[in-house]
Write a structure and sequence with these properties.
By secondary structure, the protein is an alpha/beta fold. The chain contains 5 helices and 12 strands. The radius of gyration is 18 Å and the shape is globular.
Amino acid sequence: MNAIPAALEWHIRFREHKSKEESAYIVQILQLFERKLHQKYLTILDVGCGNGRIHPLLRKKGFKVYGIDTETALLKEAKEKFPAYAENYYKKDMRKFTLKKRFDVMLSWFTSFGYFSDTGNLSVLKSMKKNLKKDGLLLLDIPNKQSRKFRRKKFSHIQMDGLYVEKIDNSIEQKNNQTVLVFTQQFYGKDGKKLQFIKKKQKKVRLYDKNEIIPLLDKAGFEIISVFKTMSFFNARADAKRILIIAKPKK
């Protein structure tokens, strides 16, 4: 076992603070579009919810938050962290899910989208629309393919994700005019002031820019309202690091 680096301990505290900032931003976005569209949003489905790290503040602000994911361990963690809301978390394939109720808001936050081919990603968007109320809102946060960050072929970082510490090695692949982010995750469990290696896995995410994702949303039956630089209220520039697309179902 290895001692937890001081820099990582700082990152763990920073990550907890960042989750609160992100939740507060989502609340502000929803309040803004409630005023603009003369709607009231109450129920949120977080598609690719992970361990529900952004959910506490949303609930504190009065939203009823639900989540779906395919990762059993992360769903288990969410249910253990929020036992009063354990029944709000479901194991579902985001490409073909149907729940018993429709929601005011579909939320896809922090690289929860893009894990499939364009056809598979289109299916995700169609499933989100199917489970969204006719006057509902889609918030889709994605890394921007045109970001300077992805001009580097390789880069690494360490982050805290719930019960685990992750060391993530990233690389960029270009294939069939598509940009794919390949990230290899090494998971470590915290044991006091030490780390214990648990597992290693690899994932691939199809990166989109604004000009690629908007036609996909159009095919899925969404009308674009705004495209912001994530964590701001400004229109996204071409090289924004992340973009937040706000959309609603077509009439």
